[in-house]
Amino acid sequence: QVQLVESGGGLVQAGGSLRLSCAADGRTLIMLHMAWFRQAPGKEREFVAVVSRGGLSTFYADSVTGRFTISRDDAKSTVYLQMNSLKPEDTAAYYCAADRSLTYRPSTGSAAYDYWGQGTQVTVSS
């Protein structure tokens, strides 16, 4: 079992920035592909970004491409989501997820991920 803990959410004005962090227990992160999802009230959970094991490959949802950057620091067992030029429609609970598959696809469906954090709230005011 892998425990994931997100942090860094908060309230920000449109056009602002936030950096989310996802810390994994122990040194398990190095074996996992890591992703961020988000879920707004009344909506389904949606894919945001994924980074492969080792960090060589990334993939983003169209809605965040050019504004968000996913990265990982395996030495710190932490994954980051840098969010710039935030918009009110980015308001959601953001979840970190881990995929233990041997191959990297990348996967945008939540069913592909084995472990989830508890979420951190991001609110963007207009």
Task: Give an overview of the whole structure.
0% of the residues lie in helices and 47% in strands. The chain is mainly β. The chain has strands spanning 4-7, 10-13, 18-24, 33-39, 46-51, 58-60, 68-73, 78-83, 92-99, 115-116, 120-125. 33% of the residues are buried. Strand 7 (68-73) and strand 8 form a beta hairpin. The mean pLDDT is 95. The radius of gyration is 13 Å and the shape is globular. It is built from no helices and eleven strands. The strands form two sheets. Strands 2, 4, 5, 6, 9, 10 and 11 form a seven-stranded mixed β-sheet that branches.
Key terms:
about 130 residues; seven-stranded mixed beta sheet
Helices, by number, come to 0
Helix-residue proportion: under 10%
Give me the secondary-structure category: mainly beta
The ordered string of helix (H) and strand (E) elements is EEEEEEEEEEE
Distance from first to last alpha carbon: 40 Å
Tally of strands: 11
Largest sheet: 7 strands, mixed
Summarize model confidence as the mean pLDDT. Answer: 95
Q: Report strand %.
A: over 45%
Shape: globular
Computed Rg: 13 Å
* Low-confidence runs: none
